TrEMBL record:
Pfam families: DUF1611, DUF1611_N
Domain D-glutamate N-acetyltransferase-like N-terminal: 42-124
Protein name, UniProt field: EBNA-1 nuclear protein
Residue stretches making up the D-glutamate N-acetyltransferase-like C-terminal domain: 131-327
Domain of life: Bacteria
Species, as recorded: Methylobacterium nodulans (strain LMG 21967 / CNCM I-2342 / ORS 2060)
Length: 340
């Protein structure tokens, strides 16, 4: 899948920043590809890049409209169709990470056909997957897990890829969600894979590798989330992680979109080890990544110090303070992976 750059980021009229996390992720990690944003009245998200009309975007050389939003069920609202059709008629391709296939909407399919434009459904793959086998395979793997969904699992693993490479590790980011696929150009949106094949799909994106190679696998959902625990468990079994990092947002009391209380970090560590031991008995935690965006710096640092002491693990905000402490822990535990 080769999606033409640069991009116009379509946000629709999403109600908050989290609903546009796909667009934010692309802008944060591939800013050179993002020329502007297109927002409808009532949109509560702002990527901090220029607001452009479709005509202005075309004039600036944009080639693809990215539907950079997420919502429950991954549906495409009817009142967004007009904007997508207009983009196609102006000569842009359209790419989406929603569950709804762009081509399943007649007006969009017809506009694409008339103009010879491409439609990309990043959440869907034509690749056929086997069921997971759970057989230990060569290479090292790290997985990010969460106390909830939307707590920074993707950002953490991308930061770890950068930090581990700088430390001399042979390490690669492995995308398991639509935003990660947009950023890396490869991967599988795991939540769109039929349940029986989730673990097999993760084995496919992280195959046998050299003994000292690290695959850094993007986590999804939470083992404690009633909506997404099935995806999280299949991902854990397929990843066979040697190491995992717990990701957490400290201001939440309930899990996103449901009434269930947020689990503790200790509960997440314990359940991840118990479930992950099925396919890798050597699984262990190597750090805690906390999204401290809502906290003042002094409060954030105090919280991280407390968590590090309480769990005997390095704790950091990967975006705010970097991941050097976690990388150092990995280097200490797995010294063979560090380049001389």
């Amino acid at each position: 899948m080769q999606i033409a750059t640069p991009y116009l980021m379509f946000l629709g009229d999403v109600p908050d920043r989290l609903a546009a996390k796909t667009a934010y992720g692309i802008v944060d990690w591939r800013p050179e590809w993002c020329v502007g944003q297109l927002r409808l009245p009532g949109c509560a998200a702002d990527l901090g890049i220029p607001d452009l009309t479709i005509e202005e975007a075309v004039a600036k050389g944009v080639r693809t409209l990215i539907v950079g939003v997420v919502n429950a069920g991954g549906v495409l609202p009817d009142h967004w169709i007009t904007s997508i059709v207009a983009a196609l008629e102006a000569g842009l391709d359209v790419a989406s990470g929603l569950h709804t296939r762009l081509g399943s909407i007649p007006a969009i399919a017809e506009a694409a056909a008339r103009g010879g434009r491409q439609l990309y459904d990043v959440r869907h793959s034509d690749q056929r997957f086997d069921t997971g086998k759970g057989t230990k395979r060569p290479g090292r793997r790290l997985l990010t897990v969460g106390t909830d969904c939307s707590v920074g699992k993707k950002y953490t693993v991308l930061a770890l890829e950068k930090g581990m490479r700088a430390r001399g590790f042979d390490a690669d980011f492995r995308a398991t969600g639509q935003t990660g696929v947009f950023i890396s150009g490869r991967g599988v949106a795991i939540d769109a894979v039929v349940a029986d094949f989730i673990s097999g799909a993760v084995e496919w994106i992280s195959p046998a590798a050299a003994p000292e190679h690290w695959d850094l696998i993007e986590g999804q959902g939470s083992l404690f989330h009633p909506s997404f625990a099935g995806v999280s468990l299949g991902l854990l079994h397929g990843a066979q992680p040697d190491a995992f990092v717990v990701c957490h947002e400290p201001t939440r009391t309930r899990m996103r979109g449901v009434q269930h209380p947020l689990p503790s970090i200790e509960e997440v560590i314990d359940l991840t080890v118990r479930c992950g031991s099925l396919t890798n008995p050597e699984i262990r935690p190597v750090g805690i990544a906390v999204n401290t965006q809502a906290l003042e710096e002094a409060e954030a640092r105090a919280l991280l110090e407390h968590l590090a002491a309480a769990h005997d693990l390095p704790a950091t905000d990967p975006v705010r303070f970097g991941v050097e402490s976690i990388v150092e822990r990995i280097a200490t535990l797995y010294p063979a992976g560090v380049a001389a």
